Amino acid sequence: LPFSAAANLRPGVEQKVVFITARVHPGETPSSFVCQGIIDFLVSHHPIAKVLRDHLVFKIAPMLNPDGVYLGNYRCSLMGFDLNRHWANPSPWAHPTLHGVKELIIDMYNNPKINLEFYIDIHAHSTMMNGFMYGNIFEDEERFQRQAVFPKLLCQNAEDFSYSSTSFNRDAVKAGTGRRFLGGLLNDTSYCYTLEVSFYSYILGGTASAVPYTEEACILL
Q1: pLDDT of res. 7
Q2: What is the pLDDT of residues 43-67, one digit of tens each?
Q3: Which example biological process does GO assign this protein (predicted)?
Q4: Cα separation, 155 vs 115, whole angstroms
Q5: Structure letter (DSSP) for residue 199
Q6: What is the CATH number of the domain that holds 191?
Q7: Per-residue pLDDT for 106 more than 90?
Q8: Does 206 reside within a domain?
Q9: How crowded is residue 213: how many other Cβ atoms within 10 Å of its Cβ?
Q10: C-alpha distances in angstroms, 34 versus 75, 80, 139?
Q11: How many Cβ atoms from other residues are within 10 Å of residue 211's Cβ?
Q12: Residue 7 belongs to a domain
């Protein structure tokens, strides 16, 4: 890291990892803007960014579907696959980016010196307003309740984030998504989410005022 020799990178120290992915659906450009804002903040001189760098290791795959983005596809890859339905068994030939990221995550999961704390997959939503999350449902009530803490904190600290639009589910159709697959793979101290941001705008709390999302606004928020 350019600003400090982070204590969490010393040999032998357990690494607490936050893994972030974005743009698995090529048409969801706001996901790239949000991811860019996260990267810009994490490498900045902001004191909170320094604390985060000193205590956590961030692994970021900013574009899971580069061929789909290049071709101007809305949802699919060059081969015509919705990559966010193939996490369970990605092919190194048909889904190479997904396969590579999954292998990296599994290697970290199997490493006793690494604790994968958070997985967050960034998307954009074409019909709903604000930012919000999808989370997982677990039989363990205490674990399920812990999953709700992070979205609630986001709602308290980000004016565009809506906890009321956040939902927790285990729909069969979403079984192949990163959030669902990794939620079933990782241990009960890990948190897996899909972060959605509207294509359009967000409503300021307590008002009827719609604030449009722009590239700059997504990066700053």
Answers
A1: 66
A2: 999 999 999 999 999 999 999 999 9
A3: proteolysis
A4: 26
A5: S
A6: 3.40.630.10
A7: yes
A8: yes
A9: 23
A10: 18, 25, 32
A11: 17
A12: no
49 inside domain: yes
Residue 196 annotated among the catalytic residues of the structure: yes
Backbone angles phi, psi at 156, to 5 degrees: -75, -25
Question: What burial class does residue 217 get, using C-beta atoms within 10 Å of its C-beta: 0-12 exposed, 13-18 middle, 19+ buried?
Answer: middle
**102 located within any domain:** yes
Strands, E assignment, the chain:
15-22, 57-61, 114-125, 131-136, 167-169, 191-198, 201-203, 210-212
> Which of 14, 117, 141, 196 is an active site residue?
196
Query: In the chain, how many domains are there?
Result: 1
> Are the C-beta atoms of 160 and 221 separated by less than 8 Å?
yes
Residue 18 and residue 60: Cα distance in Å, rounded? 8
Tell me the CA end-to-end span of the chain in Å, nearest whole number. Answer: 23
Per the confidence metrics, is the pTM higher than 0.90? yes
Phi, psi of 171 (to 5 degrees): -60, 140
Q: Which residue has the higher pLDDT, 176 or 98?
A: 98
Q: Which two tokens stand for residue 130?
A: 């604000």
User: The domain containing residue 121 runs over which residues?
Assistant: 15-212
What confidence score (pLDDT) does residue 124 get? Answer: 97
The tally of CA atoms less than 13 A away on the side-chain side of residue 170 is: 9
Closest CA to 193 of 125, 142, 136: 136
Condensed to tens digits (0 to 9), the pLDDT of residues 71-94 reads: 999 999 999 999 999 999 999 999
Q: How many CA atoms lie within 13 A of 94 on its CB side?
A: 13
Q: Quote the Cα angle for 76-27-80, to 5°.
A: 10
